[in-house]
Design goal:
alpha+beta, 6-stranded antiparallel barrel, single chain, Rossmann fold, 22 strands, 4 domains, Thrombin, subunit H
Length: 496
């Protein structure tokens, strides 16, 4: 009884066609089928069965094998020619292996030998209906994936075992072809369109373009494609389809209009990267978002380097929302600015943090400026000492003082009320007392001015240090202790 109830629930909205030449058998069986299938059709021979199928397109066909005009197997072959996916159950009073093999070859779902019990028929129908539902869900999922694939703003290619299988609509429109076959006939391959330039993706002695991008998944590659006597600059990347080993999606983003890299490469084989205006920066960030590419965010809590991956969550005319780690959200919020890094930008971007949502791990950024000297490129860590730390400078018996803003092994930055002599030949005698983890370090050595920046009521001056081995060892130990101190301090702030 439970299986009959299950069948009735599963068979809702499905249509069954029953074909049987015996009037008595057809009437009895159709009465049973109607208890489960609200839409039950009948036919008295194979010829009528084909006509009924063409007219009503039922989901399931149950048929006897021995019938006049057109037997069950011949009818099944014709029906399968109309719809290969239809489920057909054949019943037979004979245990004929030859007919069984024919049924398998045709693609019959079940071959049942008479007499057939209610339990056997119910099991066969439940299996049949379940198979239809699974296929419907799979078909629906594949349609959904296809819609996503074709709705992307980038040119997309789907490869299986290295062979191009699908191209999205945008790709076909760009190359003015109706399908992959026409693309192959017209252009031979994508690699044949790529210009062979050093620093750009192409087929060359180092290998095929496809092998290069699949060897470094998610990395952006520059590619120059010559199409109809016009050069187009693309960013190309590859991503593996999750839970597969041989399925790859290749994305091509046309950035020809963004001036990301100059095409004038006669003097140099490497791409040239110009400074970008805000519009170009936002367009490049849009490309990154559309390709689901990861960026890096760098914050510096009192010089402590905090680096985390991030993704672009939303993008607006002049700002973006990024999702990153909680640590980065906290550090960037405290500093009110963050450095954004991507292979698409020749220089790091300094961004202003205008809002943060710590629980959602989101940062809202704007005011994007390319920076000449990124803090991430520093050879040595530069840390801010405890508040109120001062240094004294002496030159020709004249004494100058300033508050220490940060210090590294080879430099020190001071905030000074008056600007000292800044000629490169000037060499000061420097003395400062640094404290970390309750231990004091007196640092002495020579210091040469490197650069200065005028502030509202002071000057920020950077000096190059030339410490002795002994003094250098003191600075290294101080920086190590100060880093641990800052880590503990930052953890407390995170907890708060």
């Amino acid at each position: 009884m439970e299986k009959l109830h299950i069948l009735k629930e599963l068979a809702k909205n499905l249509t069954l066609l029953y074909v049987e030449d015996s009037d008595k058998m057809r009437e009895q069986a159709s009465t049973l089928f109607r208890k489960f299938f609200e839409n039950t059709l009948t036919a008295q021979d194979g010829g009528e069965g084909v006509e009924m199928f063409e007219k009503h397109k039922p989901d399931i066909v149950v048929t006897d094998i021995s019938m006049p005009i057109l037997n069950g197997l011949e009818m099944a072959r014709k029906i399968k020619a109309i719809n290969p996916d239809v489920k057909i159950i054949i019943t037979s009073a004979y245990d004929d292996k030859e007919k069984l093999m024919q049924a398998i070859e045709i693609g019959v779902f079940k071959y049942l030998k008479k007499p057939i019990t209610i339990q056997v028929l119910t099991d066969a129908l439940i299996e049949c209906v379940t198979s239809i539902q699974v296929e419907d869900k799979q078909e629906g999922f594949e349609e959904y994936v296809q819609k996503i694939f074709h709705s992307q703003n980038s040119l997309l290619l789907f490869f299986k075992k290295g062979e191009l299988k699908i191209a999205n609509h945008l790709f076909l429109e760009f190359f003015k072809v109706k399908d992959i076959a026409e693309f192959t006939q017209k252009y031979a391959s994508l690699g044949s369109l790529m210009e062979q330039k050093e620093g750009y993706l192409c087929d060359d002695a180092k290998g095929a373009w496809f092998d290069k991008i699949t060897a470094e998944m998610t990395k952006f590659f520059n590619a120059l494609l010559s199409v109809s006597d016009q050069k187009h600059h693309f960013l190309v990347s590859a991503n593996a389809v999750p839970d597969t080993h041989d399925e790859i999606i290749v994305s091509l983003s046309d950035i020809t209009g963004l001036s990301l890299a100059s095409f004038d490469i006669q003097e140099s084989s490497e791409p040239k990267y110009p400074q970008h205006d805000l519009k170009s920066i936002m367009q490049i960030l849009k490309v990154i978002k559309e390709n689901n590419e990861e960026i890096k965010l760098l914050s510096f809590y009192k010089g402590l380097n905090i680096v985390n991956p991030a993704t672009i969550h939303e993008i607006y005319d002049k700002s973006i929302v990024v999702k990153t780690e909680a640590t980065q959200v906290k550090a960037a919020s405290l500093q009110r600015n963050v450095v954004l890094r991507s292979p698409l930008f020749s220089k790091d971007l300094n961004c202003k943090v205008i809002n943060s949502l710590e629980e959602e791990h989101l940062l809202v950024l704007d005011t994007f400026e390319q920076i000449e000297r990124s803090p991430s490129q520093r050879k040595f860590p530069r840390l801010s000492p405890a508040s109120g730390t001062h240094a004294t400078l002496v030159l020709h018996q004249r004494e100058f003082s300033g508050e220490v803003l940060d210090i590294s092994i080879n430099s020190i930055k001071l905030s000074m009320p008056a600007l000292p002599p800044t000629k490169s030949a000037a060499e000061f005698a420097l003395t400062t007392n640094l404290t970390a983890s309750e231990q004091s370090f007196e640092i002495k050595g020579s210091a040469k001015p490197l650069r200065f920046e005028e502030k509202e009521d002071a000057y920020d001056v950077v000096f190059l240090l030339s410490p002795t081995k002994e003094e250098e060892q003191k600075i290294v130990e101080y920086i190590s202790r100060r880093q641990l101190e800052l880590i503990r301090e930052f953890k407390k702030l995170r907890g708060a």
